[in-house]
Amino acid sequence: MPLTFDDLLHRAASLARPGHRALLGITGGPGAGKTTLAERLTRELNGDGEPWVAHVPMDGFHLADVELDRLGRRSRKGAPDTFDAAGYAALLERLRCDEDDVVYAPGFERTLEQPVAGSIPVPPTARLVVTEGNYLLVDAGLWPRVRSRLDEVWFCELDERERVRRLVARHEEFGKGHDEAVAWVLGTDQRNADLVTATRRHADLVVPESAMPAVEAEAEA
């Protein structure tokens, strides 16, 4: 039987067990549907009751532009070494230990293209944390620390032409001209996408496009 979104809901919910806060990772290339899937899972699982699922994106661990300028990495923003991987892993470990009242995670403001500290509260009632980002399965540098904190990692698989189309549209939405957006997508973003695609074999589950919610009205990272 083909995998469905309802199957994903059931699998995600089953990760949470008594006495254990579960962490689910969702990965895939830029524009593959990670954010939309994470947001939809969170919304559907929470329903109208007390929230027990939280969404914590990896994007909050982007290095600020001022630091990327200092390091000479601004032109490669979005590459693995433009994130604070150790800080992200440390936050996931804190969430996993489940010893604090509220844990505050950083978010990412797309209109500013900058991380925003302390903008996502994770309450003690959250028994499942859904986190998403490009590099959850990368086995180089400090990224293996991230994978070790996650109960499962799912890989979003999308038709390549559609992924590129969505990504160009997103860059245009947030201020780039068409030619600049295309150049960035086929350059920096594509190099990152190739790296992420190589990690697909390490995923616990590959999520096909047919099981993912539509992204037309939602921003995707």
What does this structure look like?
The protein is of the alpha/beta class and 221 residues long. It has one domain: Rossmann fold (3-Layer(aba) Sandwich). Helix content is 38%, strand content 17%. The chain has helices at residues 5-15, 34-46, 65-71, 85-97, 144-148, 160-173, 178-197, and strands spanning 22-27, 53-55, 103-109, 114-122, 128-132, 152-156, 205-207. The strands form two sheets. The chain has a five-stranded parallel β-sheet, sandwiched between helices. Helix 6 (160-173) packs across helix 7. The longest helix has 20 residues, at 178-197. It is globular. Mean pLDDT is 90; it is low at 216-221.
Q: Round the mean pLDDT to the nearest integer and report it.
A: 90
Overall spatial form: globular
Stated plainly, the CATH topology is called Rossmann fold
Low-confidence stretches: 216-221
Instruction: Quickly give the CATH architecture.
Output: 3-Layer(aba) Sandwich
User: What fraction of residues sit in β-strands?
Assistant: 15-25%
- What does the radius of gyration come to? 17 Å
Q: Give the topology string: H per helix, E per strand.
A: HEHEHHEEEHEHHE
Query: Main β-sheet, in a few words?
Result: 5 strands, parallel
Strand order, largest beta sheet: 2-5-1-6-7
The top-level CATH class is Alpha Beta
User: Number of helix segments?
Assistant: 7
By DSSP, the count of extended strands is 7
The total domain count is 1
Helical percent range?
A: 25-40%
